Amino acid sequence: MKSVVVHGPGDLRIDDRPDPVPGPGEVLLAMEWGGICGSDIGYWKHGGTGTAVLKDPLVLGHEVAGRIAALGDGVEGLTEGSAVTVHPATPVGDEPLPDRLAGRTNLHPRVRYFGSAALHPHTDGGFSEYRVVRAAQVRPLPANVSTEHGALAEPLAVALHAVHRAGAVRGKTVLVNGAGPIGSLVVAAAKHRGAGTVIAADLSAASLAVARGMGADATVDLGRGEALPADVELVFEASGAPAALGPVLRATARGGTLVQVGNLPGAAAPAALGDLVTREITWVGSYRFAEEIDDALEALRQGLDVSPVITHRFGLTEADRALAVAADRTSGSSKVMLRLDLRNPGH
Fold first, then answer.
1. CA 312, CA 323: separation in Å to the nearest integer?
2. Portions of the chain given CATH number 3.90.180.10
3. C-beta neighbour count of 213 within 10 angstroms
4. pLDDT tens sequence for the chain (347 residues)
5. Which end of the chain has fewer CB atoms within 10 angstroms, the N or the C?
């Protein structure tokens, strides 16, 4: 089978690897669609993302969906041919989480994640024609959800987790700073959870157009010098840019809540944080998700439309072009999709 493999910074290859065979308790998936994430771009451009550094070749991709091709021994409740997506996380070790973290499996101290170099040996992702997964990771797609949209259940789950971390949003005015794929999905998630007015801010007019497509009621074009609104009770920072923290904290109302969903650098970076104290803001981190992928699938079943966030599609063998487009802020790209099924390469 062909796989999208990063061997080092700037070194992406389409490698031939043996077709996998499911063992007991495992499922073989014939992959169909994958979405490119910022971490995939990081491995390709820099050989790492955050604190995870590439040591060996790695198959990219954790936003994926396909169909069940075969079931390993002992797998029940799943059917060959069914359209599915994947929960990409596998906690390592049997040590239980402390009571204060009950249910927050995303905070397990060691987690293997599709397409991640955080642990060694690395955990290959799903940008390949086939992938074997644990049966417990498989999530059947609702009948009205395509595998292309099903591949976006993972980033939608990230967005829903961020909204969950914010507490009650119904009827509130919400600001989302950063209208990339995650920010635009946060817009959709907040609207889905009943937010009254959602304002999206970004430097890119193209990104703001996507945010409007995902339900933003108003936008702020920072690239044209427009200012963030003042005194917003609930703010999501989705850009991950340290320079944005000062203005975003200033935009947050006194006693308001700021949810940090954009992945901040793992190294020291300057940021103006004084308003965190003087405005008594609650600053909450949001990391991946626990089981919100099930909430994402339910939202998709109910009709949440993720199609506006999809701007480009490429075949598996065009992965280098796809990553270049996804990494280029001038390309107008939001979510760039890979068609992984070489047996049916049509878009």
1. 11
2. 2-152+306-339
3. 17
4. 999 999 999 999 999 999 999 999 999 999 999 999 999 999 999 999 988 999 999 999 999 999 999 999 999 999 999 999 999 999 999 888 999 999 999 999 999 999 999 999 999 999 999 999 999 999 999 999 999 999 999 999 999 999 999 999 999 999 999 999 999 999 999 999 999 999 999 999 999 999 999 999 999 999 999 999 999 999 999 999 999 999 999 999 999 999 999 998 878 889 999 999 999 999 999 999 999 999 999 999 999 999 999 999 999 999 999 999 999 989 999 999 999 998 775 54
5. C
- Phi, then psi, of 118 in degrees rounded to 5: -65, -35
**Class assignment of domain 2-152+306-339?**
alpha beta
Where in the chain are all domains bearing CATH 3.40.50.720?
156-285
Residues 231 and 173: their CA atoms lie apart, in Å, by 10
CATH class of the 156-285 domain in this structure: alpha beta
Read off the pTM: 0.96
Who contacts 203 (Cβ-Cβ below 8 Å, separation ≥6)? 221, 222, 223
